[in-house]
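Input record (Table S2, row 144):
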Amino acid sequence: MILFQLKCDHDHEFEGWFKDSATYEAQSLGGELSCPLCGSVHVGKALMAPRLRTGRQKEQAEQTQKQAALAMATQTALAEIRAHVEKNCEHVGDKFAEEARKIHYGEADARGIYGQATPDEAVELIDEGIDVHALPWLEDHKKN
Ligand SMILES: [Zn+2]
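Output record (zinc ion complex):
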């Protein structure tokens, strides 16, 4: 997102957030921008020089906010995956590699399982064509 200081032909200044510079240009050319005060569609960029510092700070704040929102969304998604796994799969703890192999070779009932595997075990499983997925588990996962 990018913030532009805009100005209509009646010298009303206002701010507009745009996805990027090209979006601003497109909306400007398409006459989609109008002054919130008088409704004039004759809108252009106002000189931003005196506000450059503030603008950059706002941009940084926006950036930080976006990163926080993204981190939050990732955590939520992981929590959902985890809840789904815990509900539908059997926890086998550190016997994961052993159980996954048994299921793969038909020595145990086919079912979803989850647990811990070392990186070496995971590589071996994948080499054997066993379908495993590594998930970054959240901190408060119950210890087994
Ligand atoms: Zn205006």
